[in-house]
Write a structure and sequence with these properties.
By secondary structure, the protein is mainly α. The protein is built from five helices and two strands, in the order H-E-E-H-H-H-H. The chain has two domains: 61 residues, no CATH class; 60 residues.
Length: 129
């Protein structure tokens, strides 16, 4: 999935930040620390913060891409009935946004639910392989 890069970037940033911070602490120098007035800011701590934020973005994105129980309760039967149409359109390389727009017009299911369902179908297909 495209958001894994946020996770890996976050992990890399945290590792670099730890390395910079430890290097400064072990050598007793402020090579990777910059000063703003009387306040010293460690570049390592800032890198760790950026990494942690990237990992939060990854987590939140993953959480929002999954169909909720409420969405499954409301649209589950309709989604099952249109799954063959969606799979056919995906097989013909129709863009996901176009598929969602078409299914919304024809079946009244909200666009974001269709998009989440397309993602779920893709994940299920990947697991089956």
């Amino acid at each position: 999935m495209g958001t894994k890069r946020f996770f890996y970037l976050g992990l890399l940033s945290v590792a670099i930040g730890v390395g910079l911070f430890v290097f400064d602490q072990v050598h007793g120098r402020d090579w990777f620390t910059f000063r703003i007035g009387d306040i010293g800011l460690s570049a390592g701590l800032l890198w760790m913060l950026v990494g942690a934020l990237n990992m939060v973005v990854h987590y939140q994105t993953q959480k929002q891409l999954k169909l909720s129980d409420e969405e499954l309760r409301l649209y589950g039967d309709k989604l099952e009935s249109i799954a063959p149409d969606i799979i056919n359109l995906v097989g013909r390389r129709v863009k996901a946004g176009e598929i969602a727009d078409r299914m919304e017009r024809e079946h009244g299911i909200p666009r974001f639910v269709i998009l989440k369902y397309i993602i779920a179908l893709g994940e299920a297909d990947r697991k089956d392989r």
